[in-house]
TrEMBL record:
PANTHER family in the record: TRANSFERASE CAF17, MITOCHONDRIAL-RELATED
Gene3D superfamilies: 2.40.30.160, Probable tRNA modification gtpase trme, domain 1 (3.30.1360.120)
Organism taxonomic ancestry: Bacteria, Bacillati, Actinomycetota, Actinomycetes, Mycobacteriales
Alphabetically ordered keywords of this record: Transit peptide
This protein's record includes keyword Transit peptide: yes
InterPro entries in alphabetical order: CAF17_C, TrmE/GcvT-like, YgfZ/GCV_T_CS, YgfZ/GcvT
Protein's UniProt name: Folate-binding protein YgfZ
Residue span(s) of domain CAF17 C-terminal: 279-354
Length: 377
């Protein structure tokens, strides 16, 4: 098991690397000398960034029943997943709260889960306990991830990797490449010929801009429907019966699949109501010269209306953060903003990004069906 305090060898290998972030030390470089320049050059035509993913862990699932077995445990539909397909998944509690969040890549003979080091041991333990008599083997493999990120599709011109997969983070293209951990510096040097070192600060800015959470943006009460990225923009209408041959969605939740722990909450919210909170992007008052603490309250006129998650300085937007905010507050801001007192997070003035101030006009399909039945009666 990877030691969660083990620093990336790239820190000593790459000139200018600094892992100091908000007074603490990260496992990978926060930047390589000029953080805002690193971010801004990512936006230039043809630019490609190289991100150290030493703090990511690969969990490999093999065996003849791996697809159906994992399908029964997670929010994603993977029982028809084909080699080279990439998606995401969640493990939920019995009450439907998010416990684990990870990437999934299929190969010819395995499923590989991509998870943050802080959650790897807990996820590995849970999966191992759920094997019972299934033809499944679960192991952490000694790999490390390097990622290429760009505004454009990334050409196939990288050193041979143990596993390669492409995904999207909002409008950004990302290629994840896994290498043996003892060869990570040589792999870095090979990739550096076509990409510029880009620290975790820039990678976080991209993630926050796309409203993609990490687990620190969530709390123990978070349900999937509170995070639009988990459900996906096209997930409208009632849940349906599973189509056996249908593959996974791009989002972390597939609404039409067989039973798994926590599914009742997902189906109930999709069919009958709305989530009580919603994950939004906040812009922060930069004159304060500090960022809010993770988990700090978001308040409106002194009343708690949410929880702030991770934050950073964006090269164009300034300081930004993700936050879980009461849906009623977000929708009131969308329809009658004068009725909502100014927002603060950890004593810092904040505002919800206008793109997230939306009133959900959707009528829950289950309630619409009940109305139709009543009219028939």
């Amino acid at each position: 098991m990877l030691d969660s305090s083990e620093l990336s060898p790239i820190l000593d290998h790459e000139p200018g690397a600094s892992n100091v972030a908000d007074g603490a030390h990260a496992l990978t470089a926060w930047h390589y000398g000029d953080p805002l320049v690193e971010q801004s050059r990512l936006d230039k035509p043809g630019a490609v960034g190289l991100v150290d993913g030493w703090d990511r862990v690969a969990i490999r699932i093999t065996g003849g029943e791996r697809l159906t077995w994992l399908n029964s445990l997670i929010s994603q539909k993977v029982n028809a997943m084909r080699p080279e397909q990439v998606t995401e998944g969640l493990v939920l509690s019995a009450q439907g709260h998010v416990e684990h969040y990870f990437g999934i890549t299929a190969t010819e003979d395995a499923l590989v889960l991509d998870v943050h080091v802080s959650r790897a041991e807990a996820l590995l333990t849970y999966l191992t306990r759920m094997i019972f008599w299934a033809d499944v083997q679960v192991e952490q493999v000694p790999w490390s991830r390097l990622s290429l990120i760009a505004r454009h599709p990334i050409p196939d011109a990288q050193p041979a990797a143990l596993l390669a997969s492409d995904r999207r983070v909002g409008s950004w293209h990302v290629r994840d490449l896994w290498f043996s951990r003892d060869k990570i510096t040589s792999a870095w040097d090979g990739l550096r010929e076509q990409a510029r070192p880009t620290g975790a600060m820039a990678a976080r800015a991209v993630r926050l801009e796309a409203r993609v959470p990490s687990l620190e943006d969530l709390d123990e009460r978070t349900i999937p429907h509170e995070v639009p990225a988990f459900i996906g923009a096209g997930a409208v209408g009632a849940t349906q019966r599973e189509v056996e041959e249908e593959g996974p969605t791009d989002a972390a939740v597939h609404l039409n699949k067989g039973c798994y722990r926590g599914q009742e909450t997902v189906s109930r919210v999709q069919n009958l109501g709305k989530a009580p909170r919603v994950l939004v992007l906040l812009t922060l008052d930069g004159s304060v010269n500090r960022l809010p603490e993770v988990g700090a309250d978001v308040t409106a006129g002194g009343r708690t209306v949410g929880r702030v998650g991770s934050s950073t300085h964006h090269w164009e937007e300034g300081p930004i953060a993700l936050a879980l905010i009461k849906r009623a507050v977000v929708e009131k801001l969308a329809t009658d903003p004068d009725q909502v007192p100014p927002l603060q997070a950890d004593g810092i003035d904040v505002a919800i990004d206008p793109a997230d101030m939306v009133k959900d006009e959707r009528e829950a399909p289950g309630r619409a069906a009940i109305k139709r039945l009543k009219r028939v009666d």
